[in-house]
Amino acid sequence: MNVNKLLTRLLLGVITIGLAACARNPVTGKREISLMSTEQEIAIGKESHPSVVATMGLYEDQKLNSFINEKGKAMAKVSHRPDLPYQFYIVDSPVVNAFAVPGGYVYFTRGILAHFNNEAEFAGVLGHEIGHITAKHAARSQKSQLLSTLALIGGAVLAPNVVGQNMEALQQGLGLLSLKYSRDHESESDELGVEYSSKIGYDANQMADFFGTLKRLSDNSGNAVPQFMSTHPDPGNRYTRVHQLAKEYQTNHAASYQVNRDQYLRMIDGIMYGEDPKQGYVENGQFYHPELKFQFPVPNGWQTQNSPSQFQMAGKDGKSAMILLLAKGNSLDEAAQNMVKELSLNVLENTKTTINGNPAYVIISQQQPQQQQGQPQQQQQQQDPKTTLQVGTWLIQYNNAIYALHGLSSAADFNGSFNTFKQVASNFRALTDPTKINRKPERIFVKTVPRDGSFREVMTALGMPASRMEELGVLNGQKADDRIARGAAIKVIGQ
């Protein structure tokens, strides 16, 4: 088949897909290719929910759960897709985040609920997440990915030698295009957040103010990336734009819009803040797990992330990382076999040992290269050490469970990282210190400001340490020198 005929077939295939699956978007009113039916969206939500719960857990708070469901149902009724079976959940994570899954599933972390300072901020983010669902952003992203793939295929057909040499650059270019789609979706959801939250009576200017909180969190984390490389628009830019959207909406729809600060703060009084010690926590260079009763060191300067299903940590240079999770198997042999098979690993070394009295295996392996059709087997085995993943795994049998502690780096960097991996794994040991085992979680408590003063003065009067002033400022949406009136409600951190 010649090039022109093949390209024609590809283009006809795209046109056929468009004719078969073209539908009107409920938000924009425009006809567009849709590769996901409403039934499929609902099915995705139902299938995804158990995984979300298993990964993050649900936060049980009857008062807060009732609140988000009441507001969520009210907002769903005024949205562009009121007939979806919406469901609203609080997940047990300290991360400041909210997300939506197709079919009507909306999730708020307890971390973001702790950072809201009024109902209107919450309502704006709620509207934003419902907007992702009503505008069918998941389906539209799926369409863009398909068209990007077809564009690569078309390029390969037209100029296979040139595209072959530049495939990686092209894929990066298409990846940035996908990020742009994502930013467009986020901006569209901001507009819908203003509209939906305003329709149920809230002041959308407060949604804009919450982007100020997000910007401070981003700036303080040191992980900010240029806007053109981010899937989300810059929070500072969103602050300005959403304020403008709110002003326009309220000009065109004159009404009394609510903020409800004190009501919201009373609801979150006592909410858990930060890591739940029961699920493990890092302190003074050690990771402690009070329920499973083990501990191991965290390398100096490494960043960590914990969840109910795994603990991750990585060096700031991005060259090495470690992951702890439960291994699958009733014995070390079975766990090793399952791991090698599931992760498609090529074992280089396998050694039996003991770690602080616990039976263990040390397995050094590499990720197997993908078999490419028509390529000789001998050539298949030659891998670039800079791009080949090498793994040092310590399988440790402890307290009727088998834990897998993986050290990950490129094959080129593995020898330099191995001593760090080994130092962590060799210090996996039983946790017996009762002060670590019985650690209580921190919580948000709402206090009444005892006297007029600056935010710093008020926090000091309430017994908060100076070292946490910026953290408390972000939590309350205040700067250190902002004036706070006597009798105002304010958030502090305690146990």
Which key features would you list for this structure?
16 helices, 46% helix, 7-stranded antiparallel β-sheet, disordered N terminus, 4-stranded antiparallel β-sheet, 495 residues, alpha+beta
Shape: globular
Task: Output the structural class.
Answer: alpha+beta
Task: Give the CA-CA distance, first to last residue.
Answer: 72 Å
Number of helices: 16
The average pLDDT is 82
User: How large a portion of the residues is in β-strands, by DSSP E?
Assistant: 15-25%
User: How does the major sheet shape up?
Assistant: 7 strands, antiparallel
The whole-angstrom Rg is 26 Å
Oligomer: single chain
Helix content: 40-55%
Strand order of the largest sheet: 10-11-12-16-15-14-13
Number of strands: 21
The poorly predicted ranges are: 1-20, 140-181, 224-231, 372-380
